[in-house]
Amino acid sequence: MKQRREASRLYYNMKPLKSLLMIQLPTMLIFPAMLWAITPCDDANNYITEVEYLDSLIHRTLQKDLLQQALTLCPNHPEAHTHLAVILALENKNNEAHYHFQQALKTRPDSPQAWFGIGELYYQQNQWPLSLAAYLQVCTTHEKARQRVAELLRDNRYRIADGNRVLNYESLILLYDKKRLQRLHQKVARCRKQDQSIAPDVNTVTAILQPIIVFQIIEFEGDEQDFTLVLNEQLDDMALIFTEMKVKHLIIRGYADNPAFSGKAKADRSRLNWQLSQDRAKAVKTALSQRSIAGKRIKTYAYGDTRPVVKGHDEVAWISNQRVEIEVR
User: Fold this and answer.
1) How far is residue 191's CA from residue 307's CA, in Å, rounded to a whole number?
2) How many C-beta atoms lie closer than 10 Å to residue 22's C-beta?
3) pLDDT digits (tens, 9 = 90+) for 144-192
4) Where do the structural domains in the chain lie, given as residue ranges?
5) How deeply is 251 buried, as exposed, middle or buried, from its count of CB atoms within 10 A (0-12, 13-18, 19+)?
6) 21, 188, 267, 301: which is deepest, by most CB within 10 A?
7) Average pLDDT, stretch 85-94?
8) Which of 80-89, 214-223, 268-277 comes out lowest in average pLDDT?
């Protein structure tokens, strides 16, 4: 009996301690959890906030330092990569900027800022096919991207090359890859449902499916292929791609609208423009044949001034209508 009374007394003496533990134990458990919830990426957010308050023209170096610290703490932080990419693009460090935009997309594949940033990088480099593809990723959600899409689709600008600009390997591949063109077509059609102004003429949307590149103003003397260094470089890349793709048939179409013929009679003007367009098409065929593309695979057509892409008699029309188109079949 004495032992039972002692046990009972001990139990009742322990009740206040048990109550105290019941109160304090959850607090003890919660407090460490709060500490554990502060992750390195949470700390990185503080750096991002600080960067956003700084003027990039005055404090760009400090911004870069803060963003590097953020990425040290949280290597996959999409906002840190995007902010850093924008700064690098302002410094014309395009390769580094592209890398950080891509890193941002690995964590956030639908990031409007990253896709638009990539589009701007390609746009500034005149790689318009690639810029169009990037803008289309966010065309339905990003107003400035839609504006760029409308600009590039106007008169098929995205597929034009000239004597001063080379479309690089990746741009050319995009213009000649029918599966990728199909995906571009679908994205443009989806974006057009939301905003028809990006392509008022539905034929512009359909034209995306055509695997064509357009050269503007190909000049040469007589029958000689006196092409610019830029055009020769372009033809080198195209021949390489046609070989890799094992292209069986190429169609080269020549067009002309030479203002030098404007003072002549209509019949003479038409004849001279037709001859010039034929010479252009044949010169490009010869150039590709010299680059190991079998001549029997290439057909040429001449249209003179009968199919202008821009109507009128001003410099804009003249530049646009003097062209050669190379299509894969």
Assistant:
1) 29
2) 9
3) 999 999 999 998 999 998 877 789 999 999 999 999 999 999 999 999 9
4) 211-329
5) middle
6) 188
7) 95
8) 214-223
Cα–Cα distance measured from residue 262 to residue 170, given in angstroms and rounded to the nearest whole number? 39
Q: Which token pair is 13?
A: 């003496």
Residue with tokens 């701007």: 120
Instruction: Tell me which of 14 and 70 has the higher pLDDT.
Output: 70
pLDDT value of residue 317? 83
**8 Å CB contact between 83 and 48:** yes
3-state secondary structure the chain: CHHHHHHHHHHHHHHHHHHHHHHHHHHHHHHHHHHHHCCHHHHHHHHHHHHHHCCCCCCHHHHHHHHHHHHHHCCCCHHHHHHHHHHHHHCCCHHHHHHHHHHHHHHCCCCHHHHHHHHHHHHHCCCHHHHHHHHHCCCCCCHHHHHHHHHHHHHHHHHEEECCECCCHHHHHHHHCHHHHHHHHHHHHHHHHHCHHHCCCHHHHHHCCCCEEEEECCCCCCCCCCCCHHHHHHHHHHHHHHHHCCCCCEEEEEECCCHHHCCCCHHHHHHHHHHHHHHHHHHHHHHHHCCCCCHHHEEEEECCCCCCCCCCCCHHHHHHHCEEEEEEC
Structure tokens at 107: 């964590």
264: its two tokens: 């002549």
Residue entry with tokens 């590709």: 288
Length of the chain: 329
Mean pLDDT of the chain: 86
Backbone angles phi, psi at 230, to 5 degrees: -65, -45
